Amino acid sequence: MKKYDLIVFDLDGTLMKTEDGVLGSAVKAIEELGYEAPPWERMLNWIGPPIQKSFQEEFGLTTGAAQEMTRVFRKYYASEGCLIAEPYEGIFDVLRAVRAAGAKTAVGTNKREDYAKKMLEHFGLAPLFDVIHGPDDAGVLKKPDLIVMCAEECGVPLLRTLMVGDSVSDSNGARIAGADFLGLTYGYGFKSREEALAEGAAACAESTEELRKLLLSM
Fold first, then answer.
1. Helices (H), 36-101
2. From the CA atom positions of the chain, what is the Rg in Å?
3. Buried b (16+ CB within 10 A) or exposed e, 83-115
4. Contacts with 161 (C-beta within 8 Å, 6 or more apart), sequence order
5. Which CATH class is domain 19-81?
6. What share of the chain is helix, strand, coil (3-state, %, to 5)?
7. Cα–Cα distance, 47 to 12 (Å, whole number)
8. In the chain, where does the domain assigned CATH 3.40.50.1000 lie?
């Protein structure tokens, strides 16, 4: 690694395929509270941003009602949906290569931190990270805060930190925090290389193999 000493990875749509667990739990929460779930394809855009924000925007909910839907979602996600996921093919190779090149690795995700750690430990990814951060139950911490926390705990300046993710939430988080950003199109957010670059990505990967090569060249 030439330019970066720390690579911070998003989780959903970056490290793991998580749509079945996330959206399945969301549908159960929506229906339990008497609403009709939108089409699955539209709900895919909910993966990455805070789920409470997605609920609020989709159904025009008050803050309190969105919090209640989020509470019910978490009930289902914690009990069954959290581990309905799958690491992307090749992601272990990406992480091992980055660490072998001398960089530290971290996770900065909008997924609640305890869920993120549970998932990463279950699928054997946790040992490949120096730091794992997500918001707590209150959801106060946002993506920029998480990136800054990862950098501070790893002892790396933000100017030598790269955020890797598949969505505008990741690109905005990196920009606000003062880190660089690498976009992905194989996840749930960006649909094209052009879209990721337009959001300020220094580079874009369309597969985990391309991601590995890009990281080792940066």
1. 40-43, 51-59, 63-76, 91-100
2. 17
3. ebbebbeebbebbebbbeeebbbbbbbbbbbeb
4. 4, 5, 6, 7, 8, 147, 150, 151, 177, 179, 180
5. mainly alpha
6. 50, 15, 35
7. 7
8. 6-17+85-217
Where in the sequence of the chain do the CATH 1.10.150.240 domains occur? 19-81
Residue 70 · residue 55 · CB < 8 Å: yes
Backbone angles phi, psi at 8, to 5 degrees: -100, 125
Q: What CATH superfamily is the domain 6-17+85-217?
A: HAD superfamily/HAD-like (3.40.50.1000)
Mean pLDDT is lowest, of 4-13, 29-38, 137-146, for 137-146
Tokens 């960089």 belong to 103
Question: Which of 123, 119, 97 is closest to 109 using CA atoms?
Answer: 119
Which residues are CB-neighbours of 41 under 8 A, at least 6 positions away?
A: none
User: Whole-structure pTM over 0.85, yes or no?
Assistant: yes
Checking if the pLDDT of 128 tops 90, the result is yes
Average pLDDT over residues 23-32: 97
